[in-house]
Amino acid sequence: MIKITVKEENHSRHKTPCLIVPCLDQETPGPYLNSLDQALNKVISQSYKDRRFQGKLNQTLLLNAKGLFTADHVLLVGVGKADEFNLEKLRQASASSVKLAQKSCFTKAGFDFANKALSKALGKKVSAQDGTQAIAEGAALGLYRFDEYKSKSKDEPPPSQIKEIVVLVDSKQDLAQGRKGVSRGLTIASAVMEARSLQSHPSNKATPSYLAQTARALGRKHGFTCKVLGPGEMNKLGMGSLMGVAQGSEEPARFIIMEYSGAKKKGSPVVLVGKGVTFDTGGISLKPSASMDEMKMDMSGAAAVIGAMAAVAGVKLPVNVIGLVPATENMPSGKAIKPGDILTSMSKKTIEVLNTDAEGRLILCDALSYAERYKPRAVIDLATLTGAVLHALGHQAAAIMGNDDALIADLIASGEETGERLWQLPLWPEHEKAIKSDVADLKNIAGPGVGAGTITGAAFLKQFVGDMPWVHIDIAGTAWGGEDRHYVSKGPSGYGVRLLLRYLEQLS
Ligand code: BES
Ligand code: MN
Ligand code: ZN
User: String of b and e for 288-298 (b: at least 16 CB within 10 Å)?
Assistant: First the structure.
């Protein structure tokens, strides 16, 4: 993990190989950058004039300043227009600039977060704690790479690496706040990276037991308890739907129960539920082989919940939170469930399995029934549930549906703040009708011609939440990034960790 320190120092006195300077999208650099511009023989204002650099969000320009300024190089990074500025923009700009600094073979950089001057230029206050937190999150997440399975070659030199960033602040008071912000930012980033690594590991490593081990280890490290149920205990609880999916696999299923008590009083907890299908072949309703490898990430909901538990405990939020992860493979075999089979769930509701590839809802429904024992103030489930959500929203937003408008609104707001966006889809009685079975209480897919695959998935889950306030978040599109962008690279995004943390933060 990158080292980030905070220093009370003016940029003109800070000796560094590379000074990163946030810039606004406007006609000229503005008075905020006047003295730096003068020192660099007006090369900054000239760049604005020539439109080589205009401060557009994530735009970068690396200048050699040797002999002209205390720093050897100045790296300008755009944070966008002043009236559109928020912490998400700063988080992105931090990632973009630090990534370029690393690519340019710097091993150390300074980040000029003169928050008074920046606040003045922006016309709004950016606190030292919030700002430094965003910078730390962006830098750490932007530099994340997963290379555990690559052999270290003796001939090739290791790729260059940024090892330290010094964030410059204005005053003693900001120094203390800045240190808090950086420490919080790095704790959160490391929880997101835990989630990304879980997503990245192939299914022969990240088995249900591996998810359980990881949750245990993180619980010990950050301070939450972790209990793990095996097949025998799940059968005893009557989790026939979850065990139905698990019966086709040689890998034993696990039910992971994480409990964090941060609130002094025994207040009712928020329950987080994450889909933990460590590999989804589709089962007897087998998926096509093209891109089937991607289904190693069908435990991204589980990764988000485990990561969120680590983050919540890591920053010691004063709330009570429970994390539940039903974990299994979905495999075809002589013992696997077949289309037409009927399962009895923990709720005693019977389910006709018309497609074994709609397995996520079959394991989540038993976890939702288990959640009832906590009398939760809210239940939030995250799942890579449907390919349909990719058609609807792409990689840009996850779909949210539920039975509680206030809960939905709070989560959408948290999504805007963290950049982990949500878009609400409706959940109407017609959708619930579409999953009634002729021979059992429910069927696990809607009939042909109904469409709305993401919504009927949610409608199925709704049958198991009783009157608990509940939302379902379909992350099949957001869990895996489509392209490299700022602090999320192509591949595992760790989506959900920061969203859940932010939601829980504003509760407390
Ligand atoms: N895990 C998949 C959904 C998925 C698709 C996740 C693409 C990530 C990327 C899920 O279990 C599934 O197979 N869903 C089916 C549901 C259908 C059978 C009703 C789907 O989306 O096709
Ligand atoms: Mn499936
Ligand atoms: Zn699946």
Answer: eeeeeeebbbb
